[in-house]
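Task: encode each sequence below as structure tokens.

Item 1
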Amino acid sequence: SLAIVGLLISIIWISTERQRVEVSRSFKLVLLGVLALLIVQILLGTQVREQIDEIAKTTANRKLWIAQLDVRVLVHRSFSVLIFISSAWLFWRNYKNDYSFFSLGALLVFIFLEVISGAVMYYLNVPKILQPVHLLLSVGMFSFAFWAVLRSKIR
């Protein structure tokens, strides 16, 4: 599904007036790194979700689900810190250098909301309402990061 979202964003990019922003090499590398981390994070989240689906087949008691997950949930949770810090650095550099990437501000907000929704799911027994919200936020994060990658070019 991320490939389809990426394709749609690319089509929008191609069909509009393309205004690129010149950025430093380090900024572009961190931006590409954040996009790669987001893809890995989404894949890890998919694996955690698959585990939840399997656990849910054996017990309907949501209070038992998190305890039955393996180490991937901890890696998924820890990865979010790295993504947040990297994105905060991008946001700060964007502001400091006046690159005018609106999408990086939106990315940081989405990451913050994603971390909050993930923590609530982890500590409050995976509320049903937050599962689709968490998924939607992850697609939004990918979209904002991908758009910034398309708009940026190294000086």
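Item 2
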Amino acid sequence: PLAWASHHSDPWVRWAALRRLRGSRPAQQRRMQELLLLSDCQPLRALSLEALEWLRLRCLPRVVAAGSVLQLQGQPAERAHLLLEGQLEPPLPLAGWLECLDGGSWSSDLRCITACRLLTLTPQDLQALVQAYPECAQSFFSWLCAELRLREARAA
């Protein structure tokens, strides 16, 4: 599953993938997997390893059983989720990020189809990221524009 990463254009991604493939302690493997997944998320792709590690350290890992409801439509968005393993309905790798960024409520229910492993962040974590690493504001802005275009296309 990490073959793609061993050919990635970013040298630290290649290093992490090769290190994981060669074997390391479970905690190091988890850290590398989390960093690789964070770096692969569209709004986070432009961030430095330092910024990704800063963010990773603020994430709360969460394991949720199959069939569980994470959020209900209309509830305030108190946490954003990044899917590490499992399947969500709707199928989103990033859930609640838009709602957390704008202080809104969930636009739909979020359920675990299978057992899921997630990293979660508070709206305050996302705001602190932008303050600590202003370059991520442009990345978030680009991602939000792409999401808006996608939603407009679906509505048409």
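Check on item 2: The first helix runs from residue 11 to 22. The two ends are 37 Å apart (CA to CA).
End of task.
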